[in-house]
């Protein structure tokens, strides 16, 4: 891995951006799916206009920033991985702010974590939401967002549940409703874990949280999904 990253320096010196970007793509293929998942939910939730922002454009901007501000520190795989995800988060959050659909709250991260954990402990009734006739007939509500199959499979692995559960359409709907019910920060750390394939320590680094906060958040998220599927731990 370190040897392949050494090529970044060569490509930077020769100003070969295409080759430089290819090294980054091979080094961290999980970056684009993570960005795509964040954008997909933002579109569905009405936070950004549909088809205005594209994962490839954002990833290319990230690569350009690394190319223009390349340093020897980027040859460290762990540091580069964290840097790429931090850049992705910064660009995604900037997009949300520029769309003026929400106001940034100057709230300490520990208070946000505490608030979300409390929210995730509340009883969740996904079945009632799916059976609500008004919900299904209200054309002004966004249609149910089903999760992508690849993400569903990886999510079930994270939940330590059998992938065969997604063969039933009802379970796919329940997974989607549980995903939609997650508070913002909890959804982000889940996507960093499942789409980004980051460790708890790496997520804490990217989001500037304590490891214990990330662990508690992921466990609460896991309980929310298992409850939705009727798969609570004994």
UniProtKB/TrEMBL annotation:
Gene3D superfamilies hit by this protein: Winged helix-like DNA-binding domain superfamily/Winged helix DNA-binding domain
InterPro entries linked to this entry: RNA_pol_sigma_r3/r4-like, WH-like_DNA-bd_sf
Family matches, as SUPFAM superfamilies: Sigma3 and sigma4 domains of RNA polymerase sigma factors
Protein name (database record): Uncharacterized protein
Species this chain originates from: Methylomarinovum caldicuralii
Lineage, top ranks: Bacteria, Pseudomonadati, Pseudomonadota, Gammaproteobacteria, Methylococcales
